[in-house]
Amino acid sequence: MDKKRDSGDILEHMLLEEVKTDDIDYIEPPEEWNPESHQKEPFVPPVLIREKEAPEAEVKEFTLLAHHRSFWRIQARGQYTVRAIVIRSGVHISLAHESVRNCMEEAMLFDALLRNELCENRSRLSEMLGYSRARITQILNLLKLPEEMRRKLLLTDEISEFQLRPIVRVSSVKDQKEMFEHLVRGKLTGRQMALFADGKENGEKEEGSVLPDLEDLMSEEEDRMQEPVERAGREPPGRGVVRHSHVRPLLRIITLWRGNWREEAARNRLDSVDMAFLDGVAKLRNGLYREATRILEDLVEDHPDYAPAWFFIGKCENLTGDLEAAESALRTALELVPDEPDYLVELAIVLEKMKRDTEAAAFYRKASSLRRSSFGEGDFAR
User: Fold this and answer.
1) In CATH, what number is assigned to the domain containing residue 253?
2) Among 36, 87, 160, 270, who pairs with 265 as Cys (CB 3.0-4.6 Å)?
3) Burial environment of residue 150 by CB neighbours within 10 A (0 to 12, 13 to 18, 19 or more)
């Protein structure tokens, strides 16, 4: 979750409504929820949305979107009404969003806004909230997690979308649950989760193989950041990841043919996905950063494993000064292709601008090591 204003400050600017609890559709708490364990938490008014199609015979008028623990406590006490933030129109969206601290609740909020047409599409939602459209998509992807897992995420605000991203990419529900258990027990970072996912994938290639120990994986991450090692030949995790052996020739088309690149691309019979990628890169190189971002975000919305598109989204966001969006996009690219020097350098530049010099230095060192080990392959970003 991104940093937001204190909930108390937000609520001072929003009128609360009294709503009957029987009129609210909500997710039941997971079995392990204990009302006593959250008694010390400050009560934050639940966020509700009035459903567009309600009321009907079996449809509740309101849906609970955020601050589930507050609502569950009210339910446990047997109260008949609750004072809540009710989203009825676009004017309520920003203030309601700023009160949300839980990544799963943020995803539920975005989904409800789109479902009820309070935002006509993801582009409009990104404009309203100051997020990139790629970021909106990453958050909405959390709704792909199994229902049991989504309910458990409502119990804590300490787990971020970035930590969950490797789990979303896994297709096996069994593997997702195992990874989630490690995340909850180990308080792992997003990078540690990616390492664990990679170890899971490699460990199950042979029947009866044993997963790397969690402490080993965490130690491996520390080693990689302190003393980068050569791993350029390793295949990245995930399916359908676009490799640079395919993308570099595409970029040469723009470099060599410039204004006539479309004709050359047509002669090479490039498909619509690669054409869209080149169009975005061409816009970037002509200084049309917003247009480039829009094109590339359209691409990753349908093809989330197209790593170079995430990289160039990061470059665009860096050039326009949105460093948090740039970091998010570049880290996504690195999840897909961990050992691409250009991705590492661009992220290091962003981190340096954010005054995170220690992190930046580690990425610079790793990029330098990889480039020495693969000297002569050429520079991807050119």
Assistant:
1) 1.25.40.10
2) 270
3) middle
Report the Cα 266 to chain-centroid distance in Å: 34
d(CA 273, CA 311): 16
Check whether residue 177 and residue 74 sit in a common domain: no
Same domain, 211 and 277: no
- Beta-carbon neighbour count of residue 249 at 10 Å? 12
**For 322-377, how does the pLDDT look when each residue is reduced to its tens digit (9 = 90+)?**
998 999 999 999 888 888 888 999 999 999 999 988 888 888 888 888 877 765 55
Can you give the pLDDT at residue 312? 92
Question: Residue 294 has which token pair?
Answer: 């829009």
| Structure confidence at residue 196 as a pLDDT band (50, 70, 90) | low
Give 3-state DSSP helix, strand, coil % of the chain, rounded to 5. Answer: 60, 5, 35
Decide if pLDDT at 255 tops 70: no
Q: State how many domains the chain has.
A: 3
> pLDDT for 222-247, tens place per residue?
444 433 333 333 333 343 466 555 67
Q: Cα-flanking dihedrals φ and ψ of residue 78, to 5°?
A: 80, 25
Alpha-carbon distance of 276 to 270, in angstroms, equals 10
- By the 8 A CB rule, do 28 and 67 touch? no
Query: How crowded is residue 109: how many other Cβ atoms within 10 Å of its Cβ?
Result: 24
Centre a 10 Å sphere on the Cβ of residue 80 and count the other Cβ atoms it contains.
Answer: 8
Which of these, 19, 137, 143, lies nearest to 82 by C-alpha position?
A: 19
Which residue, chain included where needed, has tokens 């459903």? 51
- Of the three residues 176, 192, 226, the one that is the final residue of a domain is 226
CA dist 334 and 347 (Å) reads 9
CB 73 within 8 A of CB 85: no
